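During the practical work, I selected for study one protein's amino acid sequence and its backbone structure tokens, as given directly below:
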Amino acid sequence: MWKGEIAEYVTLEMMIFETFIGGLIGRCGSNKSWIRTESGATIKVHGGKGENKHRQIHLGGSAQQVSVP
């Protein structure tokens, strides 16, 4: 990005199985923190444990920050 250029804010939303949430978040949020630190994106997990079979994940930031390889 060039100096003075404003990055467009992008949101990526996905649904994942409840059984994968623990691996995504990690012990005491370690994986979630690592994702935020490495990518610069925000990550939010919606829905409470056991409420549904799926949980909604929101990633936010620039297109580069939220890209999934």
